[in-house]
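Structure (tokenized):
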């Protein structure tokens, strides 16, 4: 929770904050995430506006995961920018009630609206969305990572000249064996030219 009492409710007031918070956990995608309990650095700007408090910020956090190409461990950092409005719960700063939306469209809109709780606001849902959206869906150890050898699984970055003799597709192995058998049979049936004719003469 962050406190806005020092900011006040006069439109145009602004306050900057720098904080370190602990990761709320489960902050990641399949191949990469912010470690549970890791420190997230926050730079925040709070602005008082007519409807509430506008929060603009940047979050920086460490990442752990694995490269999707070579499966090597990754240690990276993510930087995520965000901006969110936290509305006053019942009235604006002039004491007038917030107008009710017409045509029954308010329910869905309220689900997307974040409210101040007294003078406090909870940044966790905003932070979670911003960081997860900033994560790479296909993290790599380097942009030109060549990945693994499809034949033996060796990491190609460690051995750029890595290679294998032409491998036979297992689906064609039986046919190749048959072809070799036929070739051997043809050789056995070839007429002998070991000098017998010269002896007959």
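Design, position by position:
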């Amino acid at each position: 929770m962050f406190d806005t009492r020092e900011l006040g409710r006069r439109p145009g007031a602004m306050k900057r904050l720098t904080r370190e918070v602990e990761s709320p956990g489960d902050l990641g995608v399949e191949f990469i995430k912010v470690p549970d309990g890791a420190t997230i650095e926050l730079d925040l700007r709070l602005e008082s506006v007519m409807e509430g408090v506008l929060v603009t910020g940047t979050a920086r956090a460490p990442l752990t995961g694995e490269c999707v190409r070579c499966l090597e461990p990754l240690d990276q950092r993510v930087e995520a920018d965000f901006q969110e409005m936290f509305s006053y719960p019942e009235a604006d700063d002039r004491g007038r009630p917030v107008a009710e939306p017409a045509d029954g469209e308010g329910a869905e809109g309220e689900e997307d609206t974040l409210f101040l709780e007294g003078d406090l606001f909870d940044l966790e849902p905003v932070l979670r969305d911003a960081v997860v959206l900033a994560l790479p869906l296909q993290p790599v150890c380097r942009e030109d990572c060549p990945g693994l050898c499809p034949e033996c699984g060796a990491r190609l970055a460690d051995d750029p000249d890595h290679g294998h003799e032409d491998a036979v597709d297992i689906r064609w192995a039986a046919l190749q064996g048959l072809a070799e058998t036929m070739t051997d049979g043809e050789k056995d049936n070839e007429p002998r030219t070991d000098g017998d004719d010269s002896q007959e003469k």
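Reviewer-requested clarification: Residues 91-109 have pLDDT under 50 and may be disordered. The chain has four helices and nine strands.
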